[in-house]
Sequence to fold (223 residues):
Amino acid sequence: RALTALLLALPLAQAAAPTPLAGARPNIVFIITDDQGYGDLSAHGNPVLRTPNLDRLHREGVRFTDAHTPSSVCTPTRYGLLTGRYNWRTRLQRGVLGGLSPRLIEPGRETIASMLKKQGYHTAVVGKWHLGMDWAQLPGKTVSELSIETAAQVNNVDFTAPIKNGPNSVGFDRYFGISASLDMVPYTFIENDRVTKAPTLTRSFPMHPPHAGEARPGPTAPG
Fold:
């Protein structure tokens, strides 16, 4: 399964003891995976796929076995997880955002990251964001706001400029990842509010089975 996002929250002061002290704040880790079904874990009876580390979390942690979502695709799921709100309260009423889409989380909206920061936690997110961020648009150029950008729009932003209103604006101290899905431009990593390497090439990439064909061609970082 594809690990698409990892959200971390760590207390400012770690206990020296190997086991948590009574009343100590725990480390908190959210792992979001694409297309994982209830029966995919060997702990849930999968006779073929062995998942020992997830089985250990299953065995030693807390299990929620009757959970539901009003929308099972990427952008609305992430919005609901971070804000605790129904995804249909946003401007996005169907589908997902693109890699160049503006921010979806409203200014000033409380998130699980900003809430934990108030409790003294360091916060970080690693992986794909897919909730929009405000790229600097080139003069006279635009990108789609509530859908995947068109092929004609993939070069309409200034990739050398700082990115505003990304993960750092909603409570995360650190961010490293990609703006949207693996098949969406730009094909470069982002650290906090800047790309780690300017996407100066144009490329597409083969989709992995069971998908066929090529990902959307667009701006790609060398290497």
